[in-house]
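>> received
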Amino acid sequence: DCHLGNHVILSNVSQLAGHVTLGDWVILGGLAKVTQFCTVGKHSMIGADVKIVKDVAPYCLVGRNPAQVEGINKIGLRRRGFEKDVIDEIENFFDVLLFSGLNNRDGIEKFIKGKNVVVEVEEVINFIKNSTKGIHR
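>> returned
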């Protein structure tokens, strides 16, 4: 009952529990595990031997045990033709959201206050707001 997007890469011995959703261009490293009902957003990369127990927002680079977001998947985005300005804006958003000490709601509000938000960041914000399991931070 899993749903895999286009261009997904599952490395050796990666595991998906039931009802997992992987967005387009997701990469799972070797021995990566995704627990049931989790969603991994598009263009995310999960490192080797990482256990995902919450949703992973689009464009994230996740590593370590326990799993945590280490940044965005910049190299993957560059390879797929994302403009530098868009990549920088995605990175700025995650810097505010994840590394400023604010919770999700306050981080989103701080970032969008008084600025035009690019489509890619709007998609991430909608992903976070619609997450039922919470997101890895």
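>> The longest strand covers residues 68-72.
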